[in-house]
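Recall that a protein's primary structure is simply its ordered list of amino acids. Everything else, from secondary elements to tertiary packing, is in principle encoded there. The following example makes that idea concrete.
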Amino acid sequence: MEKVRIDKWLWSVRIFKSRTIATDAVKEGKVKIDGKPVKASYMLEVGEQLEVRKNGFNFQYKVLSLIEKRVGAPLAQLCYEDLTSQEELNKYNAWFVGKAAAEKREKGAGRPTKKERRVIDQFKKGEF
């Protein structure tokens, strides 16, 4: 296998959750090679560098190997090299904090009041 469709590769190495989302991102111009947007049918080769805009963040990857089938995360990470700048990764990690788990309140505290809700929202936005 010397070439693979770019949308298929982005999905198979788990950069996007589904192939449809990967195809839509490519069609919208959020995936670039050498600064130029490509089509979903673009045939990707080993050694090419991608720029992917996802959730408002710019990620950069170098293709190390080509796969067509979706694999587990540890195997997928071997297929690319992450060239994303540390500054961009820090912004992404700061945005991602707290998104994985639900928030907890003390048992018996009940629902937050309107005033408490505003304070919580300010804290989440980083205005506190």
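The longest strand covers residues 57-63. The radius of gyration is 19 Å.
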